[in-house]
Amino acid sequence: MRTNLSRIAVTATAMLALTACGGNGDGGDDGQTGAAGGLTGQGSGDSCTISSTIPVGAALSLTGAAGSYGTSQQKGLQLAAEQLNAKGGVKYDVKIEDDQTDPRQGITVFEGFVNGDKSVIIGPTLSNTAFQAQPIAQEGKTPVLAISNTASGITEQGDFIFRDSLTEAQVIPQTVKKAKEKYNLAKVVVMYSNDDAFTESGFKVFEEALKAEGIQNLETITFSKADTDFRALLTQAKGQNPDALVVSGLIEAAIPLVTQARELGITVPIIGGNGFNNPKLMADAGEAAEGVVVGAAWNSASENELNTAFLKDFQAKFNAAPDQFAAQAHAGLVLIDHAVRSGCSGEREAIQEGLTKISNVPTVLGDVSINANRDAEHPAVVQVVQDGKFAVLE
User: Fold this and answer.
1) Which of 143, 232, 241, 380 lies 20 to 30 Å from 267 when distance is taken between CA atoms?
2) How many CB atoms sit inside 10 A of residue 383's CB?
3) Is the pLDDT of residue 2 over 90?
4) Which of 15, 314, 328 lies closest to 150, judged by CA?
């Protein structure tokens, strides 16, 4: 399958090396892996000491339709790397490459990481790309930690594939249940992008959750992830007189869809999937975003001590507030550090084994465990946009 896909060279401007103390400055491709015990140290847990820097690869969408998600993830990883390296004992060299929101580019990036020296791979940003690129890592026995892929089937691709992002199947049912209670929902119109694995998976979970809650789906309306004019489709939806609109789409579609819905006089709640979890929704849609409901794996209002510190440190470093994608990225590297320290080894198979043992590890997301299916388990939250910010839907 890979031989039929064109390879796209990764340009220098599409890369970012987060150089750890003691790193080589270009992502660590200096032959450290496999060097006589270079990635295996002494001790365990906080006492673990490894002499060589652990090379980590991250495939993120820094450009393209998911660019806003990827740039948030980039910042979360950068902050986590700096904090972990300052902790001492184990240091990380995180090399981030742009997958350009393109599965073909994601394949190229993964091939480079697997064939190079990377001990573990973080990403890619979208499930669509993950389904195409992850088999390369599985075949090369290189552990992958997905930090934003919520589609069903991601971890089923092999025993080296993990994720810290809650699945749509874990979050959406809670969202639908809470929205029904809050808004007394009886009938809705469902809209989704049918040309993306993530949004299609979200639609299927919404469909099942609505049925389970006894909410009637009056009509299902599809669109393309590249669409920006939804007026005709929204007029069609409005004609059904629903109690709410349920939408599974990426942020680039969510912003104009929400804006145009309010312009057309659609005042009912809009319930979004994980793609709506982005501050750009409020920044770009403004007043139109008020009242939008979305389930989440993280909420900035959490009083978790680690989260409070994360908010402060992120704001200080980037002069901006983090979002869920930054939080999941930060937590991802923390979980990898826990896996490395559990066996005091940065070798691929040791990290893979360490990730299977993740249980109640404190992170900015809360205490995270990884279950037998290699999926994360931690508390979810249902949010509503209120006064330009995400707030917990009470």
Assistant:
1) 380
2) 25
3) no
4) 328
Q: How far apart are CA 118 and CA 347, in angstroms?
A: 9
Write a three-state SS string for the chain. CHHHCCCCCCCHHHEEEECCCCCCCCCCCCCCCCCCCCCECECCHHHCECCCCEEEEEEECCCCCCHHHHHHHHHHHHHHHHHHHHHCCCCEEEEEEECCCCHHHHHHHHHHHHHCCCCEEECCCCHHHHHHHHHHHHHCCCCEEECCCCCCCCHHHCCCEEECCCCHHHHHHHHHHHHHHHHCCCEEEEEEECCCHHHHHHHHHHHHHHHHCCCEEEEEEEECCCCCCCHHHHHHHHCCCCCEEEEECCHHHHHHHHHHHHHCCCCCCEEECHHHCCCHHHHHHHHHHCCCEEEECCCCCCCCHHHHHHHHHHHHHHCCCCCHHHHHHHHHHHHHHHHHHHHCECCHHHHHHHHHCCCCEEECCEEEEECCCCCEECCCEEEEEECCEEEECC
The two structure tokens encoding residue 28 = 């660590």
Tell me the mean pLDDT in the region 147-165.
95
Question: What pLDDT shows up at residue 374?
Answer: 97
Q: Is the pLDDT of residue 22 over 80?
A: no
> pLDDT tens-digit profile of 102-118?
999 999 999 999 999 99
Burial of 241 (0-12, 13-18, 19+ CB in 10 A): exposed
Q: What's the whole-number mean pLDDT along residues 217-228?
A: 95
User: Rounded to an integer, what distance in angstroms lies between the CA atom of residue 238 and that of residue 263?
Assistant: 12
Look at strands 187-193 and 216-223 and give their pairing.
parallel
Q: What is the pLDDT of residues 374-393, one digit of tens each?
A: 999 988 899 999 999 899 89
Strands 361-363, 366-370: pairing is antiparallel
Amino acid at 324: Q
Other CB atoms within 10 A of residue 368 CB: 25
pLDDT of residue 339: 98
In single-letter form, the type of residue at position 138 comes to: Q
pLDDT of 42-59, one tens digit each?
999 999 999 999 999 999
| Per-residue model confidence as pLDDT tens digits over 318-350 | 999 999 999 999 999 999 999 999 999 999 999
